[in-house]
Design goal:
This protein is of the alpha/beta class. Helix content is 44%, strand content 15%. It has a domain of 243 residues: 3-Layer(aba) Sandwich (Rossmann fold). It binds nicotinamide-adenine-dinucleotide and thymidine-5'-diphosphate.
């Protein structure tokens, strides 16, 4: 079998970082299947334009005919499934796309992969892996002092997004248990880093700060997220792919719990240093408390002890080094952000805040 892998959703934030690292580290060829929804951006993969190790295919993971064709043609030794609708606020406004891609799409993908896998010879069958990229949000919300999520924490998803991801995780589990498909599932905490779509907290705050717009903090801003630099997430996925026990789940996290307001203030202070406002005031003056997200999860925290003990993974970045790299990347890629904000994203943002009776213009 070839060293080729099929990556889905590889034009999005984490998928693009994964594809770039895979090709740049010369680990093999990537067939990158992406529907190019609002979140898919080929500019993320610009540096691979002339690489023979990257084959981009525009398409839907739910298109069984297309996926069967790609699998038969390229004979990958693994499928890494990043493709998803990923934004909680969008899932509140319109859950249907989340059910279609995250649940129905993953089901169709599993069917295509199972059919392909069943045609492989015994050795290739044993070597094959289907790695499903999931989230810590499937475990629900923690109280302030509760222990972090482990792989055995019961599922308790609270948003249409996390419910759809939970459903996909269950399907992956069932395809291993019932059909023997060699699956791996990873549940990761909040990522940040280059190519992060500017609807999510960290890139949105950087973009709004520089554009002189309000920095919207939901509710009291005391919700807690556990942040991991995206390249550390990608390294963890590679490690699980290489050495993970088939059928198992691995939690991935950075041991970096922060309140949202801490994140926003940190970004403001960094920007005050690196690109001060012309009026000499702090970007923190732009912080605006807005209506809370319905059903807002209070706290996520990941215990990544299994991954670190069994597979020897640990993050390379601390929050301080990762956020420094991230802010520097956004400051030197403002054209990347403005290309996005001139499109579909902008219309969606306006609808979202107009419904809250708030003006973010
Ligand atoms: P993203 O929204 O930035 O990218 C998703 C990509 O999937 C886009 O390129 C989009 O075009 C593509 N896509 C969407 N529907 C598709 C379909 N039906 N067929 C093919 N391609 C499709 O998401 P992300 O933040 O990069 O997240 C990637 C994965 O990681 C998701 O499964 C998400 O649930 C998971 N995850 C994300 C985070 C995070 O903090 N961003 C944390 C943990 C897990
Ligand atoms: P987000 O980046 O959307 O990720 P997730 O909802 O998957 O954790 O949001 C991170 C946190 O920041 C979450 O608690 C919601 C909050 N938030 C704001 O306070 N303001 C914003 O404008 C956004 C987008 C998020």
């Amino acid at each position: 079998m070839s060293k080729t892998i099929l990556v889905t959703g590889g034009a999005g934030f984490i998928g693009a970082n994964f594809v770039l690292a895979w090709v740049n580290q010369q680990l093999g060829t990537v067939i990158n299947l992406d529907k190019l929804t609002y979140a898919g951006n080929l500019a993320n993969l610009e540096s691979l334009k002339h690489s023979a190790q990257h084959v981009f295919v525009r398409g839907d993971i739910g298109d069984q005919h297309l996926v069967a064709h790609l699998l038969a043609e390229h004979k990958p030794c693994a499928v890494v499934n990043f493709a998803a609708e990923s934004h909680v606020d969008r899932s509140i406004h319109g859950p249907e796309d989340f059910i279609q891609t995250n649940v129905v799409g993953t089901f169709h993908l599993l069917e295509s992969v199972r059919a392909y896998w069943s045609t492989l010879n015994a050795a290739d069958k044993a070597d094959f892996r289907f790695l499903h990229v999931s989230t810590d949000e499937v475990y629900g919300s923690l109280t302030k002092d509760a222990p972090a999520f482990t792989e055995t924490t019961p599922y308790a998803p609270n948003s249409p997004y996390s419910a759809s991801k939970a459903a996909s995780d269950h399907l992956v589990r069932a395809y291993h248990h019932t059909y023997g498909l060699p699956t791996l599932t990873t549940n990761c905490s909040n990522n940040y880093g280059p190519y992060h779509f500017p609807e999510k907290l960290i890139p949105l705050v950087i973009h709004h700060a520089l554009a002189g717009k309000p920095l919207p903090v939901y509710g009291n801003g005391l919700q807690v997220r556990d942040w991991l630099y995206v390249e550390d997430h990608c390294a963890a996925i590679r490690r699980v792919l290489e050495a993970g026990q088939v059928g198992e789940v691995y939690n991935i996290g950075g041991w970096n719990e922060k309140t949202n307001i801490d994140i926003v203030r940190t970004l403001c202070h960094m920007l005050d240093e690196k690109q001060p406002r012309t009026d000499g005031k702090s970007y923190a003056e732009q912080i605006t408390y807005v209506a809370d997200r319905p059903g807002h999860d209070q706290r996520y925290a990941i215990d990544a002890g299994k991954l670190s003990k069994k597979l020897g993974w640990k993050p390379a970045e601390t929050f301080e080094t990762g956020i420094e790299k991230t802010v520097n990347w956004y400051l030197s890629h403002q054209d990347w952000v403005s290309n996005i904000t001139s499109g579909d994203y902008r219309n969606w943002l306006q609808t979202h805040y107009a419904e809250r009776g708030e003006e973010l213009a």
